[in-house]
């Protein structure tokens, strides 16, 4: 078997780390080398790769990293890979902080033994799955008697129950405490805002004149953008990579939903010979490529516009 050296650039927290390894190295060895380079353990690594190497993500999910080589998953020479994750020292700090809070909560919740006399624990046989979105809140300036209140609440509920959004959130472990509205006059230059990495996400769902609702799919892309801030603050290169990945996952999920709805059988079927001339087929393919290129450019422009009008913050005052 021919062996060759692959040079791969690891992008981590706005810095690039070059590594070199043989193309017959396993994915597990690749992860170990990443750990040696940036200090993030394999189990804490989230790896973002170009589309041609997306097989790597499937290998990681399947747990076959010790049997699969990096050549098998599509990694190639001079490819750039983005890694997201926390090193051990940061994880220990977070764990220590959580332990401190757990002890404080346990102390507050301590019940005197006399209050437990003649009591029996409740039996719970049904496990309710934890929801992704805690609550959806209409802006406090809109009274419930206003006809717009119901429309806004329905719009927020649609976003919070969108199957593609829930799919992405479950894949990445995202949770949102409160999903609410960002009024046009509150932050005129923003379409969305993520506070405290998912505690609250505010979305501009009304038009600039506040007399109607914005396009749903555009707002959903803004929500995906803000969900990325659950992991990454600001807009470094790894943020853009994660945002693109989330949008691809939404597109793939909805595509699979369509296939699952309309595909009746996987058996071969009779297909009559086409009477369309070859040059017409080529013309159709060229037209398809142009449409695809125009669509990709339009979506890239939308993402660029969203990025320039979205943000994240640790503390921003707003009305609940």
TrEMBL record:
Record lineage: Eukaryota, Fungi, Dikarya, Basidiomycota, Ustilaginomycotina
Domain of life of the source: Eukaryota
Domain annotation WLM: ranges: 127-300
Single GO term (MF): proteasome binding
This protein's name: WLM domain-containing protein
InterPro entries found in the cross-reference section: Ubiquitin-like_domsf, WLM_dom
Originating organism: Malassezia restricta (strain ATCC 96810 / NBRC 103918 / CBS 7877) (Seborrheic dermatitis infection agent)
PROSITE patterns hit by this protein: WLM
Pfam family, one: WLM
């Amino acid at each position: 078997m021919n062996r060759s050296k692959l040079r791969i650039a690891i992008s981590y927290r706005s810095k690039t780390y070059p590594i070199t390894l043989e193309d017959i190295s396993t994915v597990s060895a690749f992860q170990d080398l990443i750990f040696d380079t940036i200090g993030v353990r394999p189990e804490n690594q989230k790896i973002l790769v170009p589309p041609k190497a997306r097989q790597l993500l499937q290998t990681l999910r399947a747990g076959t990293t010790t049997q699969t080589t990096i050549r098998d998953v599509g990694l190639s020479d001079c490819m750039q890979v983005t890694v997201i994750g926390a090193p051990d020292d940061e994880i220990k700090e977070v764990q220590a902080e959580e332990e401190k809070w757990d002890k404080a909560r346990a102390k507050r919740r301590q019940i005197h033994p006399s209050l437990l006399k003649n009591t029996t624990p409740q039996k719970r046989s049904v496990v309710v799955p934890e929801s992704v979105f805690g609550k959806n809140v209409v802006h406090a300036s809109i009274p419930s008697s206003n006809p717009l209140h119901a429309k806004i609440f329905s719009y927020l509920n649609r976003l919070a129950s969108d199957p593609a959004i829930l799919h992405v959130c479950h894949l990445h472990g995202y949770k949102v405490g409160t999903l609410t509205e960002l009024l046009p006059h509150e932050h005129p230059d923003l379409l969305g805002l993520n506070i405290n990495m998912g505690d609250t996400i505010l979305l501009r769902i009304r038009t600039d004149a506040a007399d109607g609702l914005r396009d749903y799919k555009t707002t959903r892309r803004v929500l995906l953008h803000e969900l990325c801030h659950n992991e990454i603050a600001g807009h470094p290169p790894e943020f853009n990579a994660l945002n693109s990945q989330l949008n691809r996952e939404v597109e793939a999920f909805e595509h699979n939903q369509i296939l699952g709805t309309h595909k009746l059988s996987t058996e071969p079927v009779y297909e009559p010979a086409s009477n369309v001339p070859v040059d017409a087929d080529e013309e159709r393919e060229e037209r398809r490529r142009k449409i695809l290129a125009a669509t990709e450019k339009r979506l890239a422009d939308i993402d660029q516009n969203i990025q320039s009008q979205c943000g994240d913050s640790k503390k921003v005052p707003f009305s609940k």
